[in-house]
Amino acid sequence: MKHADVIVVGAGPAGCAAAWDLAHAGLDVLLLDRKAFPRTKPCAGGLTVKALLRLRYSVAPVIQRVISEIEVTRNGGRVSRFRARAPMVAMTVRRELDAYCLDQTLAKGARLLLAEAADVAQDAEGVSLTTAKGETLRARWLVGADGANSRVRRLIGMAPGERALALEGHVPIPATGAPHLRFDFERVRGGYGWIFPKADHLNVGLYTQAPGVTFGKSDLVAYAREAAGAETVEDMVGYPLGIGGAGYAPPPGRVLLAGDAAGMAERLLGEGLHNAIKSGQTAAAAILAAEAEADPVRAHRRALRPIQADLHACNAGAGWLYSGHPLGWMAMISPPGKSALSRGFAAGMTLAEILPTSPFALAYPVADLGGRLPAQA
Ligand SMILES: Cc1cc2nc3c(=O)[nH]c(=O)nc-3n(C[C@H](O)[C@H](O)[C@H](O)COP(=O)(O)OP(=O)(O)OC[C@H]3O[C@@H](n4cnc5c(N)ncnc54)[C@H](O)[C@@H]3O)c2cc1C
At 29, is the secondary structure helix, strand, or coil? Predict the structure, then answer.
C-alpha cells in the first residue's frame, strides 16, 4: 500500500494549486490523474489577471496572447468595446498550461501517480483510496479536484452539483488577422458565444448556465461561420462546468473538494480557472491548519467565504444579464460600467470587489504583473 500525507485526485488547475502549496509546506503529496499529461481539457484557456496573480509562479512561457480589448454584443446588436491600458486576460491552451503547472508542482516535490480514483473510504485517522486497477493508497487527507464530473464528490455522498454547459472548437485565424476577443451574449439562451484568439487558431464556443438549454455542433458551426467567417470547425467538444459552489458547505471529514468538483466555476461567464486555483489553495490551507491542530472544516468554510462572496456576485450578475431585462446590459455597457469592469479586471479584482464601487471606480490601480506575462506583451 502506498502512503502519503495527502492524496490529491486530479492534476488540473485546482489539484495542482492544492498540491503545490502542500508540497511547499513540506507535506508528502501524491497527485493522481487518470490521464497522462500533456492531455487536452475542453476549455478556452482564458486566464484573467486575478487568476495570474493567484498562481504561485509565472506561466509566461505558455501565454500565447495578451488581451487588453474585448468586444461584446447582445442579441446580435451593436458592438461595445471594453478597453484597458493594461492586460485583462491572457490566452493559453490548456494542454500546454496544465502540463506546465504540473511540472511546477512536481518540481515543488509532489509525486505523480497515473491512476484513476475508483473508491474512497474515510475513517477517524485518514482516507483510503482504491484505484481502478485495485491498488490501495492511504493518506491523512484527500483533496477531490477531479472536475465537473467528480467521482470523489459522489463517493463522499454529496449530491451532484449544479452545472453549466459549454461547447468549443478550433477555427483558423482569418487572412485579415486575428479578431479581438469577443462575447456575443444571448447567442444561446442564458449564455453567449465566444471567440478567443490564440497564437495559431481561434477558439470558438457556446456557453449557457440556464438549466435545460442545449446546443449542438451544428449550432457552433453556424456561430463560427457568422462570427469568424469559418467554413469548418475542428476538434468540437462539449463539457460541463461545475457551478453552484456559492452554497457549497464542506462536509465534516477528511475529504475536501476544490475547483469544479466543488462547483467553483462562476455562473456569469463560466470562468473556472481563477476559483479552481483559489479553492485548491484554500483546501491546502485548511489541511495545513488541521495539521497544526485547528478545526479543518471551520478553517475551510472560513477560507471559502471570499470565493463564495464572488460566486454570489456573479450569480447576481448572471441574473441581471440573462434575465432578458435590458437594464443589466445597459449598466454593463454604459461608460462608467465599461470603465469599472475593464479597469477592475486589469487590476485583478473579482466582481464582488468591483460591483460595490463600480459607478465611481474610474481610478483602479493596475496590477503589478511583473514577470507574469511574456516579455513581448
Ligand atoms: C468548453 C469550456 C471552456 C472553458 N473556458 C474557460 C476559460 O476560458 N477560462 C476559465 O477560467 N474557465 C474556463 N472553463 C472552465 C474551466 O475549464 C474549469 O472551471 C476548470 O478546468 C476547473 O479546473 P479543475 O482543476 O477543477 O478541473 P479539471 O480542469 O477538469 O481537472 C480535473 C482533472 O481530474 C482528472 N480526473 C477526473 N476524474 C478522475 C479520477 N476519477 N481519477 C483521477 N483523475 C481524475 C482529469 O483527468 C483532470 O485532469 C471552460 C470550461 C469549458 C467546458
Answer: strand
Could you report the per-residue pLDDT of 247-269, keeping only the tens digit for each?
Answer: 999 999 999 999 999 999 999 99
Q: Which atom of ligand 1 is nearest to the CA of 33?
A: 44
Mean pLDDT by 10 residues, the chain (377 residues): 96 98 98 98 97 97 96 93 94 98 98 98 95 97 98 96 97 93 96 97 97 96 95 96 94 95 97 98 94 80 90 88 83 87 91 74 52 61
Do residues 20 and 108 share a domain? yes
Q: How far is CA 248 from the centre of its chain?
A: 16
Q: What is the 3-state secondary structure (H, E, C) of 31-65?
A: EEECCCCCCCCCCCCEEEHHHHHHCCCCCHHHCCE
Task: Tell me the CATH number at 231.
Answer: 3.30.9.10
- What is the rounded CA–CA span in Å between residue 370 and residue 53? 10
Taking the centre of ligand 1 as the mean of its atom positions, its distance from the CA of residue 53, in whole angstroms, is 19
φ/ψ of residue 216, rounded to 5:
-130, -175
Is the beta carbon of 259 within 6 A of some atom in ligand 1? Answer: yes
The mean of the pLDDT values for the chain is 92
Ligand 1 center from residue 11 Cα (angstroms): 9
Say if ligand 1 is within 6 A of residue 260 CB.
yes
Retrieve residue 203's grid coordinates: 477558439
CATH code assigned at 272? 3.50.50.60
Place of cell 485565424: 173
Q: How far is the CA of 331 from the centre of ligand 1 (A)?
A: 31
Q: Tell me, using a 6 A CB cutoff, whether residue 205 lines ligand 1.
A: yes
In this structure, the answer to whether residues 34 and 106 fall within a common structural domain is yes
- pLDDT of 340: 87
Pocket test residue of 8, 43, 278 for ligand 1, highest count of atoms within 8 A of CB:
43
Q: Do residue 155 and residue 36 come from a single domain?
A: yes
Domain boundary among 273, 289, 318: 318
Domain stop point among 225, 242, 259: 242
166 and 154 belong to one structural domain: no
